[in-house]
Structures are given as structure tokens and as C-alpha cells.
Amino acid sequence: MRGKRFAALLLALVLCVSATACTARQSKYGSAFRFPLCAEPAQLDPQMADDAASVEILTATMEGLTRLSETGEVLPGIAAEWRTSGDGKTVTFTLRKAMWSDGTPVTADDFAFAFARAVDPATRSPLKSKFANIVSAEATDKTTFKVTLNAVDEAFPRKMANTAFYPCNRAFFENSAGHYGMEAEYFLTNGGFTLSSWSHGEYLILRKNTQYYAQEEILPDAVRYVIGADESDVAHALSSEALSACAVPSGQEAAVKRAGFATATVYDGVYGLWLNAETEGLSNAATRRALCAAVDRETIAETLKKEEKRAAVGFVPPDATCGGASYVAETDTFGDVQSEKKNLSALPQLTLLCGEDELSVSLAQRILQSWQKRFSLYFKMEKLPESTLSARIQSGDYQLALGTVVSTGGTAGEALAAFSSGNSGNVTGFSDKTFDGLLKEALAADTKAAYQKAEARLLVGCPCLPLYYPARTFAFGDGVEGVTVHPFGGGVYGAVYDFRKATK
Length: 504
Prior knowledge:
By secondary structure, the protein is of the alpha+beta class. The protein is built from 15 helices and 24 strands.
């Protein structure tokens, strides 16, 4: 029932500060923990919310039939236990005694109603596809919820921890008169926290849910999410207690280290040379291969070694997993330069975007020099602030770019799916039917060998030349303990920070 345990160092990093006497300290911001929120939540409706900010809040305040431990293990949530039929297509969940934050019981009908809403055409849920394998979902009594599947899915209990499958109280929803999840007063929770206050554009305040069945596991009394928090000076934000935890932007690592703040590091992205396949001249895979093959990898490797960067060997970041275990990429070279040279004769002058930091500029110059030396190609270089560069890459507004793309999922399959045809996360415009087919087979088999075949095909299509795996660092305020950081923007967990056991 518990499922496979994900490798702890890959899916969660628990901050353990040296033991000290920790008591909640008052500051000008109060004693609540304070975390940054990337944007205003669109709506706190589990069957509708697909933006990162909404999912972050839902994960903290709601709970599904199952939940995930700090290391990715599937744990009982509102369902105390479950059993699977002999043919593997029927899963029956038995609910524990649990309450909504208003003191009413959480029942099997709350889940049946939520599932029905998600697939109802009138709801127009963007999450409807997540329910595609479900034939029926019914409450056979108040504490029994039976789900029949179209095909066997061993990972089904794990999926039930996703926010899309959270319950919805029918009476509360109907009394909300179309405002469900839009304001604090129209939001009912069943997880570790309640939504006490929502000041749009400014903050959301969560308070410990005294009705939660495992309230003794919830240590913080209050958490404040700061919408659009100022993270330009992390050391100042932490020392002033404006924030309790924060991602450290590139270039601020030294200042954070000098200030003595505890940190945690994740490797959930790929820094590489991204080639936009929708750009004139780069739509030809052979042209992209020639450009990548011409890059002087030995010189770049020396530069990365001096900077203590983790050289990339593939398209899948180190924190990604396969079948519940670590996935390590094993790619090959990008081919022979001379055999591809003929494809560059009609290539127009292009612009290579890069960051303003010293390393990015150095790498960009070395790449441009490689192309000048091998092919007499003289391209432009444009330096951009990190945030602008990231936005340009994510929107596909570039020709060539050096930058980091963080995977949106914690598995090798999800990392590779970012290159599939039509995927919203495909920043390169790459499209290859052979790769799509290999990826589909790999997702079904969920084996390292199958994923490596798909990854090898990317070498042929060459949408990106991986250079290194950037370390994304998170820093924590003085005395803050017990905060777990999840890679991949929260990935399967739905939230970057887990603060159920946080103390200060």
C-alpha cells in the first residue's frame, strides 16, 4: 500500500540546523513563518486550479485520499487504507474519521462529488484529462469510496495525492453561489491549515486547522505567503525576517554564505544551449547538430570545472527519478562536424542570448568563437538580466539562448516529455514523431533503458546542447528548522516548501 520510496536526496531536502533552543520570535512581521508566493492564486478550486500559486496553497490547506511523505512515500491521507481488486482495476478506499475546517465530516460523497465535477463538461476543468483512466467513482457509503479504472495503474494511489483529486464539500460549494475558492470566506479546507485571510495582491495567511485529524503533526501556528515578495536581496529578506525561506538568485550565493544562513541545494534543471527549431535556418535538425557538434566541449568543460559546476551528460536533471530510483543519463556525442557542415551554407545571422553574469558571458563567447573558427559564422550576442532571459526562453522568444530550464516534473519521463511535440513546456518548438513514439513506449515501460532510447533520439534532433546542471540553492532564516524543500517547483508534491514540522 505504501508504494516505493523515492530517493531522499533526489526528491526532498530537509533542512536540519544545529540544535538550539528554538522559540517563536516576534519581529515587525509577527511570529508567523513567511514564504514567497510567485503570483496571485487564480482560484482555490482543486478541480480547476492548474497554476503554481493556487496549487501551492491547496497543497498546504487540503488533503486527498493519500498524501506523500517528505521522501515521496505514499501515505494514508483521508483514506486510512485501500485495497485493490484481483484484476487491478478497482481500488476501494476506506476513509478515516476526518473533519472539514467547519467541523462537518469529510465523507466519501465529497470525493464522488469532486470527481464528478472534474469530468462534467459544464465545469470546463483544465484537469479533466487526469481522470481519463477512471470509468466510475462512487461512494458506496459514508466512509467507502470505490474507483473503477479502465486499465491497471499501479501508481494510482500516488496520483490520489494530486490536488485535482482533493474532495469538495457539496453543500459548501453550492452555498458559495459561484464564488467557490475565490475568497477566504468561500474556501473550506480539510488539511493541516485553514485560510485565515486573503489580501489580494499582497498576502495569504494560513492558520493551523484545529479540526485536522493529525493536528499534532502540524507545528507552526501560522504561515504567511507573501505574493510577489521582494527577493532581490535574499540576505536582507532573511535577516529582517521578511521571509523565512527563499530561493537564492544567481550571484547572491556568496552573500548568503557570508551571512551564515543555512541552505539546501537541488539539481532540477538543465543549463544548455537552446536552439529554437521554429527559427529560420534552425528548423533543420542537421543544422542544429552541426552547431552543437562544433562547440569546443573540452574548453567549456575546463571552464565549468573551475567554476565547480556539475557538467551535464544528458537532457534529464540529476534529481529526476525512474521507477522510484535515481535516473542517470548516458548520452553520446552529437556527430561529426565536417559531415554536417554542408547544412550551414544558407544559415542567416542569428543572435545568441545569455545572462549578464561572468560565467554565462564567458560560455557564450566560447561558443561563438567555436562557430567562427569552424564555419566562419559570425553571430550576435545579447546579454539580458536573468529574469528577462528566463522569460524569453520560456516564451520561445529567441533564436539561440544560453540558460536554465527547470523541469516541471520529478521523473525522467516528465523531463523528456518537455521535448514532445505540442507540449506546452516545449521551449524549443522541437517536433519529432520518432521521439514521440519512443517516449510513449518509455512512459509505459518506465525503465531506464526505454528512456535512454528516447533520450538518444534527442541527440539526433538536437533541440538543446546540455552544458551543466545548475545547483538551485534555498536559504533559511536564523533558527528556522524542519522545512523541506522539494525540487522541480514542488513537482509531484505540488508545493516547493513543506512546513508541517517547521519550528523557529
